[in-house]
Specification:
The protein is of the alpha/beta class. It has a single domain, classed as Rossmann fold (3-Layer(aba) Sandwich). It has helices at 13-26, 41-45, 95-108, 123-131, 144-151, 153-158, 176-182, 197-200, 212-231, and strands at 2-6, 31-34, 71-72, 77-80, 111-115, 135-138, 163-168, 189-191. Strands 3-4-2-5-1-6-7-8 form an eight-stranded mixed β-sheet, with helices on both faces. The mean pLDDT is 90.
Length: 241
């Protein structure tokens, strides 16, 4: 199942993707994480050095199976991201190559999570929004989120029937209820604020299963989101080899 994660800038997309992948893998699901950005926050966050032959650059032409391209992270979590020597001004991945990579990933993995940039201009983001059965749409946590929703309202209208509205409370004092009222957002999952999250990420690769009461609530919310996706998943299970 292809699941794009999309939302305004600084809405918590990359953190949610990593933590959701851990929640899904805890249920025995194989997960591919795709980061289309040329400066991959994903690989930096996971402290993985992506070699060119095991990177999103190897998708060009798709002359090989996607399983020979992706970078393994754990037994069930895999990464497709920019290499460590990526050129931000290099050629973009073509629409045809991105579509084929997503098609193969859907066959090879239980879940393909795509960390869509907020501007959604790259081929991976566009095709993932088009091909997916479910889109995780983040609310954001600033006044700029309101402007973002207005600017992208036409795209948002096209995914209205398959979106799952999620709030990631990245700021402790932001009025999330006011934002939800502004856009009449029907919230499905709220990921609670986790104190000292940024400090924790300096030494940890995921916030999933963090300690304490707030950590337990955070993990419980991720588990609910994982269960929601698993209920919509096709019956066939994929174990990459």
């Amino acid at each position: 199942m292809i699941v794009p994660i999309w939302g305004p800038p600084q809405s918590g997309k990359t953190t949610l993707m990593i933590d959701l992948a851990h929640a899904l893998s805890a249920c025995g699901k194989s997960v591919l994480l795709i980061s289309p950005e040329p400066f991959s926050e994903l690989s930096a966050r996971l402290a993985v050095q992506i070699r060119p032959e095991r990177s999103i650059e190897a998708v060009r032409g798709m002359r090989t199976n996607i399983l020979s391209i992706v970078q393994g992270f754990t037994e069930l979590i895999f990464i497709l991201a920019a290499p460590y020597n990526a050129d931000a001004f290099g050629d973009n991945i073509s629409s045809a190559d991105a579509k084929e990579a997503l098609r193969q990933s859907e066959e090879a993995f239980d879940f393909t999570l795509v960390d869509c940039p907020s501007d959604c201009k790259d081929a991976f983001s566009a095709w993932s929004l088009n091909l997916s059965e479910k889109v995780i749409l983040l609310s954001g946590s600033s006044v700029a989120s309101i402007a973002w929703r207005s600017a992208y309202r036409r795209v948002l209208d096209t995914i209205a029937e398959k979106k799952t509205e999620v709030v990631v409370e990245t700021l402790p004092l932001f009025s999330y209820p006011a934002l939800l009222r502004q856009f009449r957002i029907e919230l499905e999952i709220s990921i609670p604020h986790l104190p000292n999250a940024q400090e924790s990420l300096m030494t940890k690769r995921t916030l999933y299963r963090s300690g304490g009461k707030q950590g337990a609530k955070y993990t419980e919310a991720l588990d609910r989101l994982a269960e929601l996706l698993i209920r919509r998943e096709p019956d066939e299970q994929h174990i990459p080899t």
